Amino acid sequence: MTDGQNTPTLASPAAPGSPPAKLICRGLWKLFGADAERFLERTGGDPSAQQIADAGLIGAVRDADLEVGEGEVFVIMGLSGSGKSTIVRCLSRLIEPTAGELVFEGADLRRADARQLTEIRRHKMGMVFQHFALLPHLSVLGNVAFPLEIQGVARGEREARAMEMIDLVGLSGRETYFPSELSGGQQQRVGIARSLAVKPEIWFLDEPFSALDPLIRREMQDEFLRLQRVLHKTIVFITHDFDEAIRLADRIAIMKDGEIVQIGTPEEVVTAPATQYVAEFTRDVPRAKVMSVRALMTPGDGAGTEGTVPADARVNEVAHEVVHGRKPVAVVDDAGAVIGRLERAPVVDVLAPGGPEPAPATAAAAS
Amino acid sequence: MTALSDAGLPARPRLLRPAGLLPWAGALAVLAALWLAGGQAGWLNSYPDAWILPLRDWVSEAMRWLVKDASFGLFTFKELTRAFAGLLDLPLQICLILLSRGFAVPLGGDAGLLIPPLSWLGVTGALVWAAWRVGDAKLAGLVAGCFGYLAVFGQWNSAMVTLSSILVAVPVGILGGAALGILGYRSRAAERALTPVLDLMQTVPVFAYLVPVLFLFGFGPVSAMIATIIYAMPPMVRVTMLALRSVPAEVLEFGRMAGCSRRQMLWKVLLPSARHSLMVGVNQVIMLSLNMVIIASMIGAGGLGHDVLTSLRRLQIGDGLEAGVAITVLAISLDRLSQAIANRTSTPVHLQADQSYAVRHATWLGIVAILAGTYLLAFFLPALRSYPDWLTLDTGPLFDDLVQWINVHAYSVLDAVKSWLLIHVLIPFKRLLVEAPWPGVALLLAVAGWRIGGVRLGLTVALLTVFIAVTGNWEKAMVSAYLCGISVVLAMAIGVPIGVAAAANERVHRIAQNTVDTLQTLPSFVYLIPVVMLFQVGDFSAMIAITAYALAPAVRYTDHGLRGVSSEVIEAARMSGCRPWQLLWKVRLPLALPEIMLGVNQTIMMALSMLVITALVGTRDLGQEVYIALTRADTGLGLVAGVCVAFLAIIADRLIGAWSHKRKQELGLA
Ligand SMILES: Nc1ncnc2c1ncn2[C@@H]1O[C@H](COP(=O)(O)OP(=O)(O)OP(=O)(O)O)[C@@H](O)[C@H]1O
Ligand SMILES: [Mg+2]
């Protein structure tokens, strides 16, 4: 284990300006294989990938640091086998980390004993699974009420709460159905309602939409955004689909072979990739979908503008207005104060990257 | 090594390559030398009595001590077994009262009030209704036909006695098996302890543990039930462990995230999620319990099993056949019913919220209504109470006539066939095995184990073989091996061609599949009846019965193995110009051989389990020893002989299993 465990700095609030951190993890390691802890100690807590492989271990998560802010949608994204499921399970201690620190709501989660952990999971955590993990013998109502039943909540109360949740995810009228009678999308709605029934403080979703076909996936993403607008949960969302990540994320962590290679907003990840690997990933992403108005505006007052757009809007959301307007538009911040102006030219550049650069698809075919 | 040569054709087994042949040749040479030397040193030919380890006496002694002297301080071992028996007797009595004999309330003096049992029509009707609710009209028809048979052919009362013991034994077997399975699932140590016991339980012939049960619990229906439970429970243990293990990891994780306690996890998450697989175990327990019906009647089960056994002993073929068929129809209807229930639980269908209580619980309400209605009606209509005699059919005389006819007209032909085979095949083979010097045979088997599966397997096989000799069972074991071996060869000779045909043709496949399924629901005893009818008692009858019983896996595995050969390899062979026969001989059969060998393995297991039963028709092998032990309640003799049969089975199983595994690896199939 690395030094510095339980030092007071650990639970200190995050940098000023960002929301207070709900969940912090530092120096997190998960090695699968025999005697992993001893191995980690032997190698000074920081073995190289080669050392891990030589020892016959699997480095599912390697030295991961991350902070999830209150009310934030934090997406962890990476290819299959990159360690996403493992890291999210370490965060809830479904999998015991090999080393590292976990701080949840200011308390050291790794020190919680079995009883405390059960309490935390019962009341503060919710999780949605890739393959739904519904109980086949219970109806929709029974499934959604299940976590409350486990806590010993009286039948009337828990069913009322479950009905509320079923309503929220749009499954009213199907509460007596069994999972086998529902489509995949509907089953995942049940999974979502179930995980929300306990009013969790933090919500883990492990590739919740990966098992669904593309149209349904899109619909569920919209549903997810709608829910989040209502609920403002703190969310750790796992996906291997970059489009999904940029649609949903406030911030994205990109994982490769157990390591987090970059954490940033979708815009940062796309415009300033930290490594070649991330650049490869983001190459095909339409910039207009991720760039914010703020990044393209010319600071100043609103002289000579017509109409306003919010600074945090994505370029594609305002493109039509700017391109077809006769004058530049004014850019306003959250409070409605004008902070700059947006011209047509930069927007067009983002929409249709000029110059001889060919479209990505043809580039791939040509090389 | 490369699995397939370039043409996609199987490589030659390594065992048959020149270098691999040396140890075999050596072992055979030693065997031959010992054989010749046997003339001088008698101990080579037959294991000397003076060297026999008195294991069976020790076992008997230990059992006697257990029953007579063992005590746990507060109570003795005997009191414990008594209490256990009493506990099982209570539900059995209740079932018997309900289904078969009613209850006499003494009213002082000679007067008494007889509270009658349930009406036969009511029981049938309730089951048909249940079948219709959980299945479809076809299932309901089947159940009606089966229970109708029981009534019409005068088997009702015996069948209800049998059904009563099934109704008690099955839940106990399920609960006990599930409990042990849960234990094995939760603790590695428990699993490691359970697995070898389960392995042994499934190979020790049933008779072997009838003896200690008889010794501990005495003669009677409860003992029979206990033996049934012991016999039927092991698969449930296995199925439970497997079912719990195969609950998806995500579901377990969900349970932990929801904050389930250990108990909640088991009862609310694991068991319900695994219930479909668990139902497979339930079905197995039911089928095995029914399989035990006849055997259990040897230690006092009564009912249909008793009827079969007595008719068999008196050679009343017709009666025996009727009762045997009654067991079969009982087995078929319970099998299909439990399968229908299993299918229903795997795909539950929601109910409308506004459905009334009556609609939601129609199945149970209907059953209760039918039973109660017919019960009351029967007070006015006695024909409802018990099936009227004058409507009963009896086919006994018909069959007796048939046997008579066959014996008169076909006796000479059947007898000629039988004598020819006995003289030219059975007896020479038997002598070969019995006279072979035991150390040489042990050596040959050990070498086989070593060449196929390595030193460990070789040692295991050698030890098991020597155990048989040391306990003084060598000769009997060789008779068992001969009967079993010849029957297996015969079963394969018949079964493999059928399997080949089934693999080639969809229709044959379907017919074979159905036939094999049905054959496997027949209790093993039923095979004896027609055989004894045609060939009287003796080795030949035993061989025919064993062959018939062991045929099913030969067909099934051949079919399955051939169908499993990859279509690419077949296409490659076709492209290189194989004719259909060449394709079969040179490509498909060799590639399917490992699978077919597993079929041989299964066939041997079935044959060995049938072997003991054929002791009833007068064989002189280990089975007979066990059977004799049963009649004398000689625990030591029964257990040791039973374990020897189990060891024969284990030797065959390990050798063939290892060979098949190795061959599959060589072929790149595993
Ligand atoms: N219980 C385990 N034992 C050993 N290795 C494991 C275990 N669980 C995961 N791994 C390994 O750890 C690595 C990371 O696995 P993980 O399931 O976290 O990947 P993932 O990013 O979620 O992939 P996917 O998109 O396929 O779900 C993989 O190489 C995997 O094989
Ligand atoms: Mg995953």
Automatic annotation (TrEMBL), chain A:
Q: What region holds the ABC transporter domain? A: 31-282
Q: Where in the cell is it found?
A: Cell inner membrane
PROSITE patterns hit by this protein: ABC_TRANSPORTER_1 (PS00211), ABC_TRANSPORTER_2 (PS50893)
Swiss-Prot/TrEMBL keywords: ATP-binding, Cell inner membrane, Cell membrane, Membrane, Nucleotide-binding, Transport
The protein's superkingdom reads Bacteria
EC number(s) per entry = 7.6.2.9
Please tell me which top-level EC class this enzyme sits in: translocase
Q: Which GO terms describe its molecular function?
A: ATP binding
Family indicated by similarity = Belongs to the ABC transporter superfamily.
Protein name in the entry = Quaternary amine transport ATP-binding protein
From TrEMBL, chain B:
Tell me which residues make up the ABC transmembrane type-1 domain.
155-338, 477-656
For this UniProt record, give its keywords in alphabetical order, as a comma-separated list: Cell membrane, Membrane, Transmembrane, Transmembrane helix, Transport
Location(s), subcellular: Cell membrane
By its UniProt entry, which InterPro entries does this protein fall under?
A: MetI-like, MetI-like_sf
Where do the TM regions start and end? 21-38, 111-132, 139-156, 162-185, 206-232, 285-305, 362-384, 456-474, 481-504, 524-552, 596-617, 637-656
Membrane association type: Multi-pass membrane protein
Q: What Pfam families would the database entry show?
A: BPD_transp_1
Q: Does the keyword Hydrolase apply?
A: no
What is the similarity comment for this entry? Belongs to the binding-protein-dependent transport system permease family.
Protein name as annotated: ABC transporter permease
Native organism: Rhodovibrio sodomensis
Lineage of the source organism?
Bacteria, Pseudomonadati, Pseudomonadota, Alphaproteobacteria, Rhodospirillales
